[in-house]
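seq as requested:
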Amino acid sequence: MKKQSTSANRTPAPKAALASRHRAVALSCAVFVAAMVGAAYAAVPLYDLFCRTTGFGGTPLVAVKAPDASIAREITVRFDGNVADGLPWQFAPDQNSIRIKIGETTLFHYTAKSTASADTVGIASYNISPPEAAGYFNKLQCFCFTNQTLSPGEKMDMPVVFFIDPAIDKDPQFRSLDTITLSYTFFPAKKQAKKPLAAVEGNKLR
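struct tokens:
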């Protein structure tokens, strides 16, 4: 009896089925890549929201209500102002530091001035030092995360309203803390930013 060849029994996969599997794999890869890109973009605002609601990474909290009263303990708040490369501005606090009561609502001012020959737009970020104290530093109004436009040579008054949560006095970690630093850095604005809660625009000084 004549033996049949083993290779003759093998039936090659139909080309249509093979192409269908390739398309399915390609589609799965495309969906995965799209999901990863979407997650990367979503991570930025989610991280910012997380920081502003927890004080993580030295980011001050955004409050909607001031304490009912201050306490006797006082603390020094230092102020720092910086401008990143690419933004032709001068930016600084009106004072280097102030002494306030914990729980007292305080209004403070920064001033920005353009040294450019055309309109420029900046946007500020901020942080607290020591970072661990950020959870007790609360802002009621702020010019941060809002696009600020300056004409050539124009000045702008930039107010910030804040308070130190009296609960810090009951935290053993901060019973000896005497100084907190609030630092802002202005960057060139690349696109229109959404205004966060209680954000305020600066007051232009001609």
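Residues 14-54 form one domain.
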